[in-house]
Amino acid sequence: MMQCKNDRERMLCDISKVSFAVVDLTLYLDTHSCDSQAQDYFNHYVRLLNQMKREYAMKYGPLNLSTADGYSSEWKWANMPLPWEGVC
Amino acid sequence: MNDYPKFEDYRDRFPLAMAYVPWQERPILYENLEEGFCNGTLFPELNKPFTGRRCVK
Questions:
Q1: pLDDT (tens digit, 9 = 90+) per residue, A71-87?
Q2: Quick check: A28 and B34 CB within 8 A?
Q3: Backbone angles phi, psi at A33, to 5 degrees
Q4: pLDDT for B32 beyond 60
Q5: Measured between alpha carbons, how far is B50 from B36 in angstroms, rounded to an integer?
Q6: ipTM score here?
Q7: In Å, how far are A16, A46, A86, A87, B4 from A79, measured between CA atoms?
Q8: Looking at chain A from residue 18 to 47, which residues have their Cβ under 8 Å from any Cβ of chain B?
Q9: Which residue of B has its CA nearest to A29?
Q10: Quick check: A35 and B2 CB within 8 A?
Q11: Is B44 inside a domain boundary?
Q12: pLDDT tens digits for A11-37?
């Protein structure tokens, strides 16, 4: 069981799990491109992942550039603490 | 549902002394993503932890 101290870590844990599932499904689909059931799973999890990343970006700041928009007032991408600064 | 090559159908096209990896077909996925994440694979049939001695089927 993964231990998550606060909401931010819990969201990051969930993002890690879903992105892992997306990567593993991608590897499977690379060799089984006509498996429609696997494509359905992939579509579901990739949409879920994008939504979770947007939610995390709104709350704590963008994880990657594709979610760095939406902050008209401030350029959060460069101003938020970096991962190795012990925040996330 | 998926028309993957079956070994039996193509026995004559598999020369001797060659290694073949069985094709993954209609796999089931871990329902619990955390279980898959902690096991390093989304597919229970590919979860083969190293036990230091024998192989896990």
A1: 667 787 888 777 677 66
A2: no
A3: -65, -15
A4: yes
A5: 16
A6: 0.75
A7: 23, 28, 15, 13, 51
A8: 18, 20-21, 24-25, 28, 31-32, 34-38, 41
A9: B24
A10: yes
A11: yes
A12: 999 999 999 999 999 999 999 999 999
Interchain CB contact of A60 with B (< 8 Å): no
Which residues span the domain enclosing B49? Answer: 20-57
Distance CA A50, CA A56 (A): 10
| Number of domains, chain B | 1
- pLDDT for the residue numbered A55: 93
Round to whole Å and give the CA distance between A20 and A14.
Answer: 10
Domain boundaries, chain A: 19-26+37-77
Residues on chain A touching B38 (C-beta within 8 angstroms): 2
Report the pLDDT value the prediction gives residue A14, as an integer from 0 to 100: 95
From chain A, the residues in CB contact with B36 under 8 A are: 17, 20-21, 24
**Which residue of B2, B34, B36 is in closest CB contact with A32?**
B2
List of chain A residues whose C-beta atoms are within 8 Å of the C-beta of residue B2: 32, 34-35
- Flag whether B35 is in a domain: yes
Could you give the 3-state DSSP secondary structure of residue B50?
coil
